[in-house]
Specification:
Helices cover 39% and strands 16% of the residues. The protein is an alpha/beta fold.
């Protein structure tokens, strides 16, 4: 009779990062592809809400994370619409931290990383950035040429620094 190997249990840190929409998730997937180490001891789930108001996005994240015991939960949210105090409290009460894409939106944050001129509306940011991407902004591969690892490593944008840490960290509670 062959000896059975003892089973090992590995405590993985679980992390949920929600994007406001599919473009946010695509960019987060791009970053995860660069920074995530498969044997890091963490399990990262990326998802996205279908946009809407900050209230709707927070409510959707609470709902999607209700039945999974994530160690940490984050939302990457545009900053063009103010978040009401009761929504910030609801997120905090559910253990969700909000990371803001600034200025205004994901595209604004990404253009600021590239030191591009900053327009004053989210729609102008989108129309400036999307043609520069290599493909559809809902695909993670579209962000590779402009936002390769050296570009993301060199930025001092606070949200990107936090995301680098979250997606690449060997976390323990």
């Amino acid at each position: 009779m062959a000896k059975r190997k003892p089973t090992r249990s590995v405590n993985k840190t679980t992390l949920l990062v929600m994007g406001e929409g599919e473009h946010d998730k695509a960019f987060l997937s791009h970053m995860k592809g660069i920074y995530y180490e498969r044997h890091s001891g963490s399990k990262i789930t990326l998802d996205f809400s279908s946009g809407g108001s900050p209230h709707d996005i927070i409510k959707d994240t609470v709902k999607k994370s209700r039945h999974v015991d994530y160690d940490q939960k984050f939302i990457l949210m545009d900053s063009d619409v103010p978040v009401k105090q009761q929504d910030i409290k609801a997120a905090k009460d559910s253990g969700i931290a909000i990371l803001y894409s600034e200025p205004l939106c994901l595209e604004g944050m990404l253009l600021s990383i590239l030191a591009q001129s900053i327009p004053n509306t989210a729609q102008k940011f989108k129309s400036m950035l999307h043609p520069k991407l290599s493909d559809n902004p809902a695909l993670s591969k579209s962000y590779e040429p402009l936002f390769a690892k050296p570009v993301l490593d060199e930025t001092n944008h606070a949200t990107v620094i936090t995301l680098r840490s979250l997606l690449g960290v060997k976390q323990k509670k």
